[in-house]
Design brief:
The chain is mainly alpha-helical and 559 residues long. Helix content is 75%, strand content 0%. The chain folds into two domains: 2-420, Sodium/glucose cotransporter (Up-down Bundle); 422-520, no CATH class. It is built from 23 helices and no strands. The model is unreliable at 36-44 (pLDDT under 50).
């Protein structure tokens, strides 16, 4: 309730908003916020690795991720934390494989890169799909998750959501990508402090780690509660209907390649780098940061579940995504409560600003500039700002549909939707980089076939869950819908890759000279892999991932 917030909490929250808006004002007055399109959309290509890494992390860790992962912890769905860990490996791929191509070609957007590699049709496809995905999934989910935070502390859904969306849209419009990146860095810092405080105080209130384990053991003996192993084991049998180890190991990386390596929402940060070295180090730094959610988001969810069993806090397991807000509201002392709320608001605003900026970039570069090639640099920046305002309005209009469309399990919903739309895009990017003979005809056919299959699965699943259609077990549709969503992503990726190769083989190869900048050149690429600090950081990051996989397995803590 609002009455539970002290004056100190309110001062901290207001101070947070003040700092963020001050940074936006500073960015808007600097040279790189107004002069040209490259300044506004790519922060003048002046970002260092620390800023890029923090921005990648903050943009990804929205309130829907925080609440979704902590909710997974409360449900005993430890395998969902694998999405965070696998992201660290995919970020290595971004830094070493994808970024050099993107910076070499000087593109503003990922669809623009597809045009250079394939055709205008491929560019248009990705532009439209990306913008729709931002509005329907990213922005809507972020707003919905933020509303859960506001409702927990007694702020009405509409009031909190509207204030946050408008404030975020304001500083995004004002300063462009530079404002987004520098506010991201501040927000990442606030977010880490806030969530670490929640974890520490939650464990203290519970009586320590050992007592938490005792509570989990006792609770697991009660009907309807998850077994204690589910809270600390990343790996489940292949027959598991939700998160089989095969799906996690082979299907989840496909979602990761689409999100981290080909999505404008994320990649735009690396495009703002001073050079390839800073972009790569930024991606690796983000990889290290992506190992933290296991401890600062998932574990707090487990702590919240144990506190619920003890009667120390109250939330419904049917809506376990409220676990973390319940902890914040339940026992954090004055000041820290305000800091934790500011951390959640930081996550919300950071992700929203990223979605707004990336969407406006796509609308400006891939549509406005395309149909008005005579537009000046100031025209492009002006349209980008207008596009952001339009996206803010559209997002506010989408809010009423959120509660009707979204039930429990934010994170699962997010990953399943991505599993249906990402495989064809991941296949076209990956194969296009490494094989020159893959052509535009193969790419566009693969993209559209994959899109139709993915959307059919998504719509059929929705209608089945709503009871609109009856699915008979053992029928063709029943078998199709019964495929685990991660296995489905793997199968769809393979199917799209086969179509991509077959149609390309039947067509005419593209001009080899045109492909020099957008395909893998063995000799020059191998020369860039010489031993360096980047290689050392990469090896250490891979080792840490392997340690976490062992630690949270049947041979580690789960035992």
């Amino acid at each position: 309730m609002l009455s539970s917030l002290s004056y100190l909490d309110i001062i901290i929250i207001l101070a947070y908003f003040g700092i963020i808006l001050w940074i936006a004002q500073w960015a808007s007055k600097s040279k790189s916020a107004s002069g040209s399109a490259i300044d506004y959309f790519l922060a003048g290509k002046s970002s260092g690795w620390l800023v890029i890494g923090a921005s990648l992390f903050a943009s990804n860790i929205g309130s829907e991720i925080i609440l979704g992962v902590s909710g997974a912890g409360a449900r005993g769905n430890m395998p969902m934390a694998n999405f965070e860990i696998i992201a660290a490996l995919v970020l290595i791929l971004l830094g070493w494989v994808f970024v050099p191509f993107y910076l070499r070609t000087g593109v503003y957007t990922m669809p623009e890169f597809l045009e250079k590699r394939y055709s205008k049709a491929c560019r248009s496809y990705l532009s439209v799909i990306s913008i729709l995905a931002y509005v329907i999934t990213k922005i809507s989910l972020i707003i919905f998750a933020g509303a859960l935070v506001f409702e927990t502390i007694g702020i009405p859904f509409w009031t909190g959501a509207i204030i946050t969306v408008i404030a975020t849209g304001f500083y995004t419009v004002l300063g462009g990508l530079k404002a987004v990146i520098y506010t991201d860095m501040v927000q990442a810092f606030i977010l880490l402090i806030g969530t670490i405080a929640v974890t520490a105080f939650g464990l203290y209130a519970l009586g320590g780690w050992d007592h938490m384990i005792d509570v989990l053991v006792t609770a697991s003996g009660q009907e309807g509660n998850p077994p204690k192993e589910d809270f600390f084991n990343l790996w489940r049998p292949m027959a598991d209907t939700e998160y089989p180890w095969t799906g996690m190991l082979f299907g989840a990386p496909i979602l990761g390649v689409w999100y981290w390596c080909t999505d404008q929402y994320i990649v735009q940060r690396t495009l703002s780098a001073k050079d390839v070295s800073n972009a790569r180090k930024g991606a690796l730094f983000a990889g290290y940061l992506k190992l933290l959610p296991v401890f600062i988001f998932f574990i707090p969810g487990v702590i919240a579940y144990a506190l619920l069993q003890e009667g120390a806090i109250d939330f419904s397991m049917e809506n376990a995504d409220q676990a973390l807000p319940a902890m914040i509201n339940g026992f954090l002392p004055s000041g820290l409560k305000g800091l934790a709320i500011a951390g959640l608001l930081a996550a919300l605003m950071s992700s929203l600003s990223s979605a707004f900026n990336s969407s406006s970039t796509l609308l400006t570069i891939d549509f406005y500039q395309k149909y008005r090639p005579s537009a000046t640099q100031k025209d492009l920046v002006r349209f980008g700002r207008v596009a952001t305002i339009v996206l803010v309005i559209v997002s506010l209009g989408w809010i009423p549909f959120m509660k009707a469309l979204m039930g429990g399990g934010i994170f699962h919903y997010l990953q399943s939707v991505q599993a249906y739309i990402s495989p064809p895009i991941a296949a076209v990017f990956l194969f296009g980089l490494f094989y020159k003979w893959i052509n535009a005809k193969g790419a566009i056919v693969s993209l559209w076939v994959g899109f139709v299959i993915g959307v059919f699965r998504l719509v059929a699943e929705f209608l089945s869950n709503e009871g609109t259609i009856q699915v008979t077990e053992g029928s063709l549709l029943g078998v199709f819908l019964g495929i685990n969503f991660l296995h489905f992503a793997l199968f769809l990726f393979i199917f799209c890759a086969v179509i991509l190769m077959v149609v390309s083989k039947l067509g005419t190869p593209q001009d080899a000279a045109v492909l020099e900048l957008v395909t893998f050149q063995r000799r020059s690429q191998r020369a860039s892999f010489k031993w360096s600090t980047d290689v050392t950081l990469t090896v250490i990051l891979i080792a840490l991932v392997l340690v976490l996989w062992w630690l949270f397995s049947a041979w580690g803590i789960a035992n």
